[in-house]
């Protein structure tokens, strides 16, 4: 209670002081939009050359800048758009809405178009705006351009199994990344066991990736935040694109519903992998198919310059289906006995199918309101439903004369998460030196893991039966409330600070957790092209993903913390420097140290058993450390653009001696890769051809392996049916003879976790886009080669123990499996 | 579903994956001392198993010195492998063909017998010295469960098995126990069975058990065991008159003893299943790649659901005799048809079954050790280790590996079936195995 009062008082004080300070100022505000589509632009900059002050639009394209009354020379700019300058003699608060026109050469724009959220202009560190163009020009696996795969090429980010889109950011686990789609968290972010993300590139408007200096409005994960914003839709014209690739086809349509007032954007993607693999997967009456789709819909309506509403919907589904259907009574027979006990062959039909399906359904409604030129509000309500189910069904039917039977058996298993959320965010610009963001967020989590049901029915006259069982998993409700505030404060012309505080209450039925998360970033810019930064941030996490596999499986379960497992927290300290001394180039160096508390690991010998009810017994909470240096060079102008990055890092974990994890000894994190080197390049050969390339090098990850064996002694369960050696000498030594019998066998002995350093990974991906302007559309033909020189990178490593004791011959061996060797692909896109 | 997923993955891997051999360096992974023991309170005899990890096969250590300390007092030192067990028992070492001294010694290699009793709450430390190595572990003996209760009843369960609905007779056990304290406690319920049956059937003189024997001599030999002899006069189709002699043959079959514990059915009991999902009884696998469900093979559980309170745990032991409450057919053949029904009904089987239920409080390390063995011994372990790497088996041994597990148990013995006689019905069915 005391904490709440303090926070409220601090917030009120901040606003009042700022108001007093702002007495002689005027505020210029408005929206910046694309001239052609009228779509709001995120991160467009406004710069006053008189006072050398600037600001940027928020995620809804709104900006506000407070200046001294008088003459000003405002320049509005954005990457790829013609800058626009407005001279104004402002005596009172003024609204200026600007439309920027695009389609200009890159080199004309970039200098003043630095985002306020990232790069040298930003007070924050470790944040990267991932341009949609970069996503589209990163060579991809099977022609599927992918947001997460592009992020994997930035420094400080490790990938898991080669080709998978899981992110391990600065020593964090794969479940420590907050992935937001239009502000709503997404639980299942990939298709096809993690090899494709759910984000359709055509639907994406802006992606921002944070790995430190987290804005105070973000909570809930400790490693990173990926904020994906989708397109609003063109207010003026209809247009779109259609792509066909090796595995998927995509379509995007957008346009006005009411010109200048209401627009829509609709994107869809679906796969036909089953059609391609059907000849392999179909055998007689047996069918195996896999299918997924993504659907993004956004409708927005502009009531006025001050009010706008958006409705966004994401629906994605994966379905794996196998079935056998023998309905031809003439080919399959069942042996039954007639009244004379003679065997008869009776025609029968038989069918079974098994389905595995998982789906995200995320609708959201948001309202933007400009209360005043200094106060902008965004209110969002959303619903997030993730559901997974496995079902199996089989049916056998036969008929003979007047008799017959139907035998029916079905089973179903499902898990689901429902989130009901409401958020209100305010952008408040009380004085030229302050940009204050504050707000609150509420999420009601409803976790329902593992609901099972089954039914067995038999209509046979002799064995008539109809039984069904139903077991609903234990539902766990959790309420999560957050309030936050941060101020981007220009203390001096060359000294900025971003001071933020977030408070989260995570309330379970049995226990409440309070988390205060301070955030601080400081930027000092001695020269216009040079800045030094330092940051501290604390993040906490109250949900975890239970998984036992390095690849993403739909049965992985998200579970909230419990009364026994405290929230995971991460304290991160960073320093860095940014330099843009060469036009079109940006150099950055960041060093970080991260300490993670209550990081979870499975205890020795434990694994995710497929059910969550006793998961807290299987894990232990410990500490983790990660430290590293990240270097990045970006070239943003000219025919050749791209980036080069290098990361030197080290990540460890340690648990208490009695925790049951690695006997209390410190051990390296699974993805403790010491070196990571990335090059991404895009070369504009001419107006018709551009070439993309990326090369990645990771030093080896860690694996737990052994070729030593230890003796296991176990109580004598099931001994008679086993091949184990049975020790039962005590059987004859007294009345307790039945107790002391044991069996022994040998199994792998592992002295330390992650004891084996895997070979390094290196990968060259190439792509070329051939553009041709047709009469009514533009045709783009993309040709990509994944793993161009066919590097045999280790996706999995297996140790095969094959020792023949009798012959004393040891054929044991260690093998690495490379899932993704050289894979060429193509994509054909029409833009209209 | 597992098949489907694996087919899909296999297809994908076949299309794209490549396999290459690596040359690992495991030079630092040789020879650690391994100590394993399940030590019971209030026992005269407990065993410690000492071995050494090895690249190929763990080697038993026979020249170690084993010290036992109870509450920091050295109470016993054993410096040689123990087997002071009579050679005559060899044939009864379940299923083992231990026919030579060498083989017998191999079985007992690395076993050290401790004969000092200790009680609940005692701190037990085991030190093992071998060559230049020393490994040790220390555990506190769990407290005894106060007034546990156990009871049973016989009941028929109808289950779906091998694609058909079948009925079996089960012994449904109920065990009541009070949690020992407010702290986390760990338990195990083991059941040990002893089953047997007496079978009686009619054998005509001149018939034989197997084709390699002289029918008459075998019959004469077996006659010594017969309790009932029934001579039946007959006249055949050719008018020949004679006497057939039928003997009632008694056989005793004893096919399972207390030495083996029973892998009982605990489905439906939330404490023993620890959240494991119920599966179709037709599903003979204990693991599925997607909805993996590792069975609690070693029957360990915590007090998570009954902390500091009482619990009632239910499980069922399946009798190996099918449905005991359905009449068992006594089949006749053309010869036996001449026996009066009274005699025929004397054929059949009587059933015996004893079950010992051991209600144990166990040390925390034992809980996690046996839980890890649930995984290691499951069918799905290969899949788990393939994807996630080998599991590190927990250990509480310092300076080596292995587990010293302490147990305090209370044992209940039940005579569930005592010459149980099934109802019989005569059916005219040829007894194929006599012909």
Question: Would you give an account of this structure?
Answer:
The complex is a heterodimer of chains A (832) and B (435). Chain A is mainly β. Among the domains of chain A are: 2-112, Carboxypeptidase-like, regulatory domain (Immunoglobulin-like, Sandwich); 127-230, Ferric Hydroxamate Uptake Protein, Chain A, domain 1 (Beta Complex); 707-749, no CATH class. Chain A has five helices and 53 strands. In chain B, strands 2, 3, 4, 7, 12, 13, 14, 15, 18 and 19 form a ten-stranded mixed β-sheet that branches. Chain B has a four-stranded antiparallel β-sheet with strand order 6-5-8-9, with no helix packed on it. In chain B, strands 10-11-16 form a three-stranded antiparallel β-sheet. Chain B folds into two domains: 30-140, Immunoglobulin-like; 148-360 and 409-435, no CATH class. At the A-B interface, helix 4, strand 26, strand 27, strand 28 and strand 43 of A face helix 1, strand 1, strand 2, strand 3 and helix 6 of B. Strand 52 (813-818) of chain A pairs antiparallel with strand 1 (18-22) of chain B, so a sheet runs across the interface.
Q: Rg of chain B, please?
A: 28 Å
* Strand and helix order of chain B: HEEEEEEHEEEEEEHEEHEEEHEHHEE
Query: Mean of the pLDDT scores of chain A?
Result: 81
Shape of chain A: globular
Distance between the termini of chain A: 58 Å
What fold name stands as the CATH topology of one domain in chain A? Immunoglobulin-like
Biggest chain pair interface = A-B, 113 and 115 residues
Radius of gyration of chain A: 30 Å
**CATH architecture classification of one domain in chain A:** Sandwich
Report the count of strand segments of chain B: 20
Instruction: State the low-pLDDT regions of chain B, or none.
Output: 84-104, 209-213, 280-291
């Amino acid at each position: 209670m005391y904490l709440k009062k303090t926070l409220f008082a601090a917030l009120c004080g901040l606003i009042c002081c700022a108001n007093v300070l702002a007495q002689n100022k005027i505020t210029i505000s408005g929206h910046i939009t694309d001239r052609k589509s009228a779509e709001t632009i995120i991160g467009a900059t406004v710069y006053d050359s008189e006072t050398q002050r600037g600001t940027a639009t928020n995620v809804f394209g709104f900006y506000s800048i407070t200046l001294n009354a008088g003459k000003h020379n405002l320049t509005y700019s954005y990457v790829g758009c013609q800058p626009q300058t407005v001279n104004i003699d402002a005596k009172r608060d003024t609204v200026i809405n600007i439309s920027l026109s695009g389609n200009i050469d890159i080199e004309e724009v970039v200098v003043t178009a630095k985002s306020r959220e990232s790069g040298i202009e930003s007070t924050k560190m470790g944040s990267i705006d991932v341009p949609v163009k970069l996503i589209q020009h990163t060579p991809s696996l099977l022609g599927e351009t992918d947001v997460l795969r592009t992020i994997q090429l930035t420094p400080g980010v490790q990938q898991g199994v080669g080709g998978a889109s899981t992110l391990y950011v600065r020593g964090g686990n794969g479940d420590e990344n907050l992935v937001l789609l239009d502000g709503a968290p997404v639980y299942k972010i990939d298709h096809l066991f993690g090899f494709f993300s759910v984000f359709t590139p055509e639907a994406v408007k802006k992606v921002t990736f944070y790995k430190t200096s987290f804005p105070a409005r973000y909570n809930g994960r400790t490693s990173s935040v990926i904020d994906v914003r989708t397109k609003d839709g063109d207010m003026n014209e209809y247009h779109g694109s259609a792509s066909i690739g090796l595995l998927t086809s995509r379509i995007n349509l957008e346009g006005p519903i009411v010109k200048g007032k209401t627009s829509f954007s609709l994107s869809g993607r679906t796969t036909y992998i089953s059609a391609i693999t059907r000849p392999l997967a179909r055998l007689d009456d047996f069918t195996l198919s896999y299918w997924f789709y993504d659907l993004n819909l956004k409708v927005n309506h502009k009531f006025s310059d001050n009010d706008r509403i958006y409705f966004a919907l994401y629906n994605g589904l994966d379905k794996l289906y196998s079935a056998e259907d023998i309905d031809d009574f003439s080919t399959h027979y069942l042996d039954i006995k007639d009244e004379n006990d003679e065997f008869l062959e009776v025609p029968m039909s038989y069918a079974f199918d098994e389905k595995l399906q998982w789906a995200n359904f995320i609708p959201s409604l948001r309202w933007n309101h400009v209360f005043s030129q200094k106060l902008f509000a965004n209110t969002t309500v959303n619903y997030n439903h993730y559901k997974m189910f496995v079902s199996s069904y089989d049916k056998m039917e036969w008929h003979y004369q007047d008799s017959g039977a139907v035998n029916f058996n079905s089973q179903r298993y499902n898990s689901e998460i429902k989130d009901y959320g409401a958020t209100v965010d305010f952008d408040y610009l009380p004085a030229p030196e302050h940009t204050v963001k504050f707000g609150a967020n509420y999420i009601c989590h409803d976790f329902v893991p593992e609901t099972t049901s089954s039914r067995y029915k038999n209509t046979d006259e002799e064995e008539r039966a109809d039984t069904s069982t139903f077991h609903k998993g234990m539902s766990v409700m959790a309420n999560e409330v957050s309030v936050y505030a941060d101020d981007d404060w220009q203390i001096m012309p060359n000294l900025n600070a971003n001071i933020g505080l977030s408070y989260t209450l995570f309330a379970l039925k049995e226990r409440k957790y309070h988390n205060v998360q301070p955030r601080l970033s400081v930027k000092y810019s001695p020269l216009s092209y040079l800045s030094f930064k330092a940051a501290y941030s604390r993040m906490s996490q109250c949900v975890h993903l239970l998984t036992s596999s390095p690849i993403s499986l739909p049965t992985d379960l998200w579970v909230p913390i419990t009364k026994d497992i405290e929230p995971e927290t991460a304290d991160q300290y960073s320093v860095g420097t940014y330099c843009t001394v060469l036009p079109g180039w940006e150099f950055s160096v960041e060093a970080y140290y991260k300490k993670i508390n209550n990081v979870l690991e499975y205890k020795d010998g434990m694994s995710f058993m497929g059910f969550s009810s006793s998961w807290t017994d299987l894990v232990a909470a410990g500490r983790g450390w990660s430290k590293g240096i990240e270097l990045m060079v970006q070239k943003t102008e000219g025919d050749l653009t791209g980036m080069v990055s290098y990361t030197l890092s080290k990540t460890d974990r340690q648990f208490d001696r009695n925790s049951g994890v690695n006997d209390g000894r410190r051990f390296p994190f699974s993805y403790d890769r010491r070196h990571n080197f990335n090059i991404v390049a895009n070369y504009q050969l001419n107006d018709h051809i551009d070439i993309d390339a990326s090369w990645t090098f990771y030093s080896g990850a860690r694996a737990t392996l052994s070729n030593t064996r230890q003796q296991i002694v176990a109580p004598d369960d099931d001994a008679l049916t086993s091949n184990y050696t049975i020790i039962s000498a005590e059987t004859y030594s007294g009345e307790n003879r039945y107790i002391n019998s044991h069996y022994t066998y040998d199994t792998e002995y592992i002295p330390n976790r992650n004891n084996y350093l895997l070979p390094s990974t290196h990968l060259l991906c190439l792509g070329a886009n051939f553009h041709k302007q047709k009469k009514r559309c533009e045709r783009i033909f993309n040709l990509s080669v994944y793993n161009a020189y066919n590097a045999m990178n280790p996706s999995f490593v297996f140790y095969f123990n094959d020792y023949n004791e009798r012959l004393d011959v040891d054929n044991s061996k260690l093998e690495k499996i490379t899932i993704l060797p050289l894979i060429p692909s193509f994509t054909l896109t029409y833009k209209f | 579903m597992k098949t489907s997923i694996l087919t899909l993955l296999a297809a994908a891997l076949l299309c794209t994956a490549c396999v290459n051999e690596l040359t690992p360096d495991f030079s630092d992974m040789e020879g650690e001392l391994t100590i394993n023991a399940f030590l019971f309170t209030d026992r005269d005899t407990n065993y410690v198993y000492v071995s050494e990890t090895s690249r190929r096969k763990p080697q038993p250590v026979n020249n170690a010195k084993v010290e036992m300390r109870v509450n920091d007092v050295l109470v016993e030192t054993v410096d040689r492998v123990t087997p002071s067990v009579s050679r005559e028992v060899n044939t009864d070492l379940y299923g083992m063909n231990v026919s030579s001294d060498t083989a017998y010694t191999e079985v007992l290699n690395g076993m050290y017998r401790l004969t000092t009793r200790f009680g609940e709450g005692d701190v037990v430390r085991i030190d093992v010295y071998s060559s230049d190595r020393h490994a040790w572990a220390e555990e506190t003996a769990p407290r005894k469960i106060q007034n546990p209760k156990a009871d049973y009843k016989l009941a028929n369960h109808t289950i779906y098995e091998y694609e058909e609905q079948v009925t079996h007779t089960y012994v449904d056990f109920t065990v009541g126990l009070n949690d020992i304290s407010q702290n986390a406690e760990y338990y195990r319920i083991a059941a040990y069975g002893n089953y047997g049956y007496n079978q009686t059937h009619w054998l005509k003189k001149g018939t034989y058990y197997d084709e390699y024997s002289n029918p008459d001599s075998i019959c004469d030999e077996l006659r010594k065991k017969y309790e009932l002899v029934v001579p039946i006069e007959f006249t055949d189709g050719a008018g020949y008159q004679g006497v057939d002699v039928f003997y009632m043959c008694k056989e005793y079959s004893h096919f399972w003893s207390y030495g083996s514990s029973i892998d009982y059915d605990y489905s439906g009991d939330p404490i023993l299943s620890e959240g494991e999902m119920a599966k179709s009884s037709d599903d003979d696998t204990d693991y599925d790649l997607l909805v993996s469900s590792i069975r609690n093979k070693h029957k360990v559980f915590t007090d998570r659901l009954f902390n500091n309170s009482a619990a009632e745990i239910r499980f069922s032991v399946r009798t190996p005799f099918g449905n005991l409450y359905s009449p068992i057919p006594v089949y006749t053949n053309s010869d036996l048809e001449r026996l009066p029904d009274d005699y025929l009904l004397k054929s059949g089987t009587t059933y015996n079954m004893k079950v010992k239920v051991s209600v144990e409080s166990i040390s925390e390390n034992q809980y996690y050790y046996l839980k890890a063995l649930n995984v290691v011994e499951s069918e799905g372990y290969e899949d788990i280790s393939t994807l996630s790497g080998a599991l590190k088996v927990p250990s509480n041994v310092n300076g080596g590996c292995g587990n010293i597990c302490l147990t305090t148990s209370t044992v209940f013995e039940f005579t569930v079936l005592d010459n149980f006689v099934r109802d019989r019905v005569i059916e005219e069915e040829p007894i194929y195995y006599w012909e």
